[in-house]
UniProtKB/TrEMBL annotation:
<keyword id="KW-0032">Aminotransferase</keyword>
<dbReference type="InterPro" id="IPR015424">
    <property type="entry name" value="PyrdxlP-dep_Trfase"/>
</dbReference>
<dbReference type="GO" id="GO:0008483">
    <property type="term" value="F:transaminase activity"/>
</dbReference>
<dbReference type="InterPro" id="IPR000192">
    <property type="entry name" value="Aminotrans_V_dom"/>
</dbReference>
<dbReference type="InterPro" id="IPR015421">
    <property type="entry name" value="PyrdxlP-dep_Trfase_major"/>
</dbReference>
<feature type="domain" description="Aminotransferase class V">
    <location>
        <begin position="50"/>
        <end position="284"/>
    </location>
</feature>
<keyword id="KW-0808">Transferase</keyword>
<dbReference type="InterPro" id="IPR015422">
    <property type="entry name" value="PyrdxlP-dep_Trfase_small"/>
</dbReference>
<dbReference type="Pfam" id="PF00266">
    <property type="entry name" value="Aminotran_5"/>
</dbReference>
<protein>
    <submittedName>
        <fullName>Aminotransferase class V-fold PLP-dependent enzyme</fullName>
    </submittedName>
</protein>
<keyword id="KW-0045">Antibiotic biosynthesis</keyword>
Amino acid sequence: MRAFDADFAVPAGYLNTPSVGIPPTPVAAAVAEAVERWRTGADRPGDFDEYVTRSRAGFARLLGADPADVAIGASVSQLVANVAAALPAGTRVLAAEGDFTSVTFPFAANPGVTVTEVPLEELPQRVEGHDVVAVSVVQSADGRIVDLPALRAAAEAAGAAVLLDATQAAGWLPLDVTWADWVVAGGYKWLLAPRGSAWLLVRPDARERTRPVAANWYAGENPWATVYGLPLRLAGDARAFDLSPVWLAQVGAAAALEYLGGLDLAQVRAHNTGLADLLLEKLGLPPRGTAIVALDADPGRVAAAGIVSGVRGGRVRVGFHLYNTADDVERVLRAFE
């Protein structure tokens, strides 16, 4: 099908973007071409630097940030660990109940840190008395969106640092998040990139509060000059937190982020939430203004209706993205007949 100026080979009824996003044809083709170059021995390691540069710039552009403030990695938890491991003993972290564990586990794994979970809706009101807030912008399990303006105001008033996970938001929800100390996102969902691509925006004044737990040659000022020997010599910007890149993932991410960067995300949000709210309306439920919907439904009946979905917290989870249509809504409704 064709949607938002791109062709997608996605099957009808695919509503599992919160688990795995489907790339447009040019993104898949870029990865396939890279695999062919690999198969025929046509690539050299330095050839992939261009793709890393492009994906870093693409993520920065999506957030309205400077590429120098973006680190590349392979997963959300790996990048969050750079923040969690740097926290001193006695640090009090506030998190949302039931948030994705790639956000919370790195903090809980620091024995000197206390993590307190509260209901998402209460998060801004509970910031006082905490040093760091770590939360997903959009909840993976059910699509609830944190009140970002309220959280920002509360964090500034309390002097608390903020880490935001934009994995279930970036790519469909226009974001104003450069005020946060750190913003992380994985690429293989709404950003339509291969698994193995992730990014961490580090505000310049937060660099000293971030630890390069996986310091490596690629995190050097000039990576090709830091492949051997001490002393430690890392980049002077957020690249100090880079992980050696997953090459094929970065090839796909570069193409995917450039494609998404050319879209009007306000239109994407309207498309996605319009379909999600249409489904809720037809089920007699109130609109929620989010692309992810969690339903009390029989997973077997949903699958029998031709829907590819996920199950989270005992509920069927569906997500609407660029390539979904009203026909997908009708397919879900059949599971309730």
